[in-house]
Amino acid sequence: MLKEIEIYLSFLNDLRGQVKTLLEGLPKEALDWRPLDGEGELATNSPAVMMTHLAGSEAFWVKEIIGRQPIQRNRDAEFVVKGLGVSDLLAKIETGAKDTAAILSSLTSSQLEETRKFRDRTVTVRWGILHVVEHWAIHVGHMQLTRQLWQAKLGKK
User: Has this prediction a pTM greater than 0.85?
Assistant: First the structure.
């Protein structure tokens, strides 16, 4: 495996570990809780929605865009998910980690420079991988804030 891929996988595994810690001990009510209801830019998502969306996005980018394996993604459904428990969400994390490691570990240096079409853009495989890492990092921050707001709502520090 390329050292560069090892580094990307290490970052992703660290981010997954942070999410596991954030989800730990949360009841379903907290997993489905949104700090701000509504639609549009000011609305927020629940931890379960964010985790489901991360799993869907990672599968889309790694399997479909990078690995060229068609998947059946329903992006809209990711944002309305409810009733999942911590174990359901952890299973999504583990499945994504295995699939991503399998696909990325087989890449060569020249394949990192290959291009892929995404909507109206052309991106390199390397860009796609970095986008997955960035996307995880952004939503980890969202989940951290959501957990803090949940704890504040309960009067806990």
Answer: yes
